[in-house]
Amino acid sequence: MATPSLYDILSTPYGGRGAFAREAIPQGTMILACAAPYAHVVYWEFRREVCAWCFAYSFESGKSKWAVKLAGSEHVGGNGGVWFCTDVCRADYIREHEKMLAGNSKRTTAGLAVPPAGLVYLETIVPTDITPEYLDVAWAAARDVSDQRRGWTEEMTEFEVDTARFVLDGLLRKIIEEANPGAEMLDRLVDDTPGYCVGAGRWADYMELQDNEYALMYTNPHMLASHIRVYRFLRHITTMLPQVRSKLNEKSVHVIEQLRKNLATPTDTRALLGRDSGNVFGLWDTATDEGSEMLGWGAFVFGSYFNHHCEPNLKKKRNKRGVEFYASKDIAPGEELCISYADGVSVEERMQQLESGWFFVCRCTRCARDLERASGTPSI
């Protein structure tokens, strides 16, 4: 690993954990560089426009789409596949995945989560009283129903397809780790730059993030049926894939078998989805999140410990596949390191986003000041 961290992860006075400066940090210092997300997804609609490796957006280069494609990644209809901005990115992508798919010219994982058309929903009940016990019962029922059903008779929304692809990415990474317990992940970053430089992390690191499943379901109960549909769809996919076993090499078959074993219960899917909410970062069409398009999202595990502040002291910048965090002002020893989760919107929109997306009501001095200005009434 690189130079020692400039901060400690400690309990915060308001609950949970946060990052606190060990020493005075000058403005402009790089605090953390995350080389890659643990799991990520590029929105289905942007799959041809966003490089699957470095997340470069084709329109920023004056192109409508990328032309470099992963061989063998087509599926029915020719609308799937994985695209890259250069042959170099394609080679890096293959190198990252070759531990589990080496030599496979029929790479099918990229287009697995394709929704069947013209089908109807089955899970339509939205519970009115969510409890942790209710969630456990619902997920147990999802497992039992998945054990009994043979076909797939439900329609997936585009967001559910993207969510399924995010979960699949995380599960595949976990399988790589289990098959290579002593190996470094290829996207690990080692650097002598001041600050703390890390790779994507491992499953244990992802599990250290706060599980927001109950908070999400309590405020958005309709999401329970959506998450269960995602799990059951992935169960269906891994049940169906052995039918094309003859097109896959031995390592690919092994991966599918590991996925089937993993998805025999919803435990890991539930863990990925529970930590997705409130912890992931958007992948935007500009490096500093100031663009108009969000292209997908990724779990940059170690960056998730930076909590929100409406007047932050950190600025986030995407660097190709990674994310870097810099001090936007001088930081004193012991000061909490924070980024902004909701920039460039009105105070009412900001507070609504924080409450619905991160499950807290912001009561900072900036929000009080902005509310006073918006209402014309002095705050008490």
UniProtKB/TrEMBL annotation:
SUPFAM superfamilies on file: SET domain
Coiled coil: none
PROSITE patterns attached to this UniProt entry: SET (PS50280)
A GO CC annotation given for this chain: nucleus
Record InterPro entries: H3K4_H4K5_MeTrfase (IPR050869), SET_dom (IPR001214), SET_dom_sf (IPR046341)
One Pfam family hit: SET
Start and end residues of each SET domain: 4-342
Protein name, entry field: SET domain-containing protein
Species the sequence originates in: Hypholoma sublateritium (strain FD-334 SS-4)
